[in-house]
Amino acid sequence: MNNISIKEQRDHEVWVSSEAGDLEIFREQTSQITKSEDWPYAQDVIRNIVVYDGQNVRGWTKDPKSKRELMAEWTTVLSQGPGVLVIKRAMADLVAVDRATEVFEGIISAEKETNLAGGDHFAKAGSNDRIWNALEKHCIADPVNFTDYYGNTTLAMVSEAWLGAGYQITAQVNRVNPGGSAQAAHRDYHLGFMTNEQMSNYPSHIHKLSPLLTLQGAVAHCDMPVESGPTKFLPYSQLFLEGYLAFTRQEFQDYFEENYVQLPLEKGDAVFFNPALMHAAGENKTSDIYRLANLLQVSSAFGRAMEVVDRNRMLSALLPVLQSAKQSGTLPDDMLKSAIAAAAEGYSFPANLDLDPPVGGLAPKTQAQKIKEIIFKE
């Protein structure tokens, strides 16, 4: 193999372009059949999704051996299996669920009155109501109910199965109103919140890493028949490396719409899935169901820097230096951009999405983007 072919091969292996990804390979991966015998702790396999009984799960938590084996099974479902699992009656205390619903509805009403209700990255205005940072707001509004709701060994166990100890939970409540439209199929946080141009700047091993840092989940706060639009999933689609970029292409969107599966959910059920799984909220075709779910986003303890850095303080000192260097031409633009990258926050999250909602895009502008706009008049 000559040097040119080695260079080309490495470039192809490391960088994922917007044209990458073979639909036939994707079709083969997502044509797998989920076999019940592969998942001995499951209650059932329905439409390729592994389903567990919450009462059984709560019993297994009391036996260390069964608990560890079940967690290993969940890890395998999410990584190598269909990528999605449902736990029926994950919330044993439906009174606590109903009280949480009251809290959420109160927050939605209050935020509408104060015009705090912000933008949504995946829904048209008016089709849904969303609470950003619902975890904190829930805790402050009713700490007793928060304790009853999140004092849930099942939620803790599936989070630890995917992420290990020290995970952090965030939550966003989404209420899809009657007539609310369906989402376009997508992957989720982290890479799933970026544009194709941004995603193509991350090497392939980061495309593999991204879904390992987050667990996506949702708790149903009402019965959700299929016509109300519970989430549509394409099992095994998390296996497709190029999916973050490829899934924006029309042929993949069409394939999803022809092959997705949906399961009805009952109040208290929970669904958990690999964030790389191709999925989309369905259309609420009903006239009377306000489909309310508490969307759980659980993050790895490792998704953060080692030190706390006051970047606002740094930029207050740095900004006049950058402006002077730009105006005088003493430093080229690439050096200025490198200095900004070292000092400014280059990622949109974590963010206060009430104050800085992702209107017009999937994520708020980063600190680095804002500084570049000042320096380079972008």
From TrEMBL:
InterPro entries hit by this protein: PhyH, Phytyl_CoA_dOase-like
Domain of life, per lineage: Bacteria
Keywords: Dioxygenase, Oxidoreductase
Single annotated GO MF: phytanoyl-CoA dioxygenase activity
Protein known as: Phytanoyl-CoA dioxygenase
An annotated GO BP: fatty acid alpha-oxidation
Residues that span the membrane, as ranges: none
